[in-house]
Design brief:
mainly alpha, rod-shaped, disordered C terminus
Amino acid sequence: MGVIPIVWARLARAADGVPPLTPDGDEARRWAEQELSDPAYAIAEPTPFDRIARAIGDFITSLLNPDLSGGWGSTFALVAAVVVVAIIVAAFLVWGMPRATRRAPARAAALFGEDGQRSAAELRSAAAERARAAEWEAAIVLRFRALARGCLERGLVDLPPGATVHAFARAAARVFPALAGRLEDAASAFDDVRYLRRPGTPELYDAVAAVDDELAAARPPVLEGATA
């Protein structure tokens, strides 16, 4: 409710209790000053916060007003948007991307109890070293892991976590059907020396190594057909 309506309401109530009269100019001004000194009018006045909020709103409206002379309102709004985008880009350049978007490099999958960090070439080198020391059990285990790791590195086989050596042999046999029997024999050799604690022999190691060498040098028949 504004100040003027309050004044008229007060004057109307006052006039109801007194005979009609017509004050002169000085008397009317004095009555008005007395009426406006009432605290009720101070409440009706806008607060400093109201004035600040209204000034900010008017300023923003003026910036986005396309009716300003010469089209400066739209131009200024475009410049302000460009400045905001530049500030956001600068923030990314200074502080970088959020950490949540950074992914740790993928680790190689664990392979038949091995920690999954060694490549096929590293496993073959370790197997050859154990074979030179006549440690046939360790050499057979390492060479079969090298065989499986080589297939995984080439993308020929996709093993789920915890897959057994025989599950791998069956998966590899689907890619190399001609080697199905020898892959099963190599998997059995791994099981014998790794889990059944049977002694390894140079013959078992040579058999596993031969299958590994043949797989490493072979191209899957499916790929050969696609190339043809």
